[in-house]
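Example 3.2
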Amino acid sequence: MTALEIAGLSVRYGGALAVDDIALSVPPGQVTALVGPNGAGKSSAVLATCGTVRSTGEVRLDGERVDGWSPGRRTRAGLALVPQGRQLFSRLTVRENLLIGADQLRLPARSVAAAEERFPILAERRSSLA
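Structure, written as tokens:
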């Protein structure tokens, strides 16, 4: 299991400060919630942690700094974002969507089998349209 530590994280969009110097600790095996009203910076903080928006501060996985890493490398290390929306290719099967995701992250095709093993519903629906 991986521990996530965030320290001094800030995000700016031009002159607008979206996230100001937050710190967060997510212990292994625990569920942690980031709660706040619309516009409070929750999404920006999560996107910065995953490396998809520019930020300052430190992001650590198991004590190792990953804030200089690409989003793909962070994902391969175990840091992933599951978006709320259904950003799928609806004319492709569940398995085909997983293979595209693995390819984009430069993961071997066997990682799809590992995902299906971890989440059996994926294996059950692998031939269904997403």
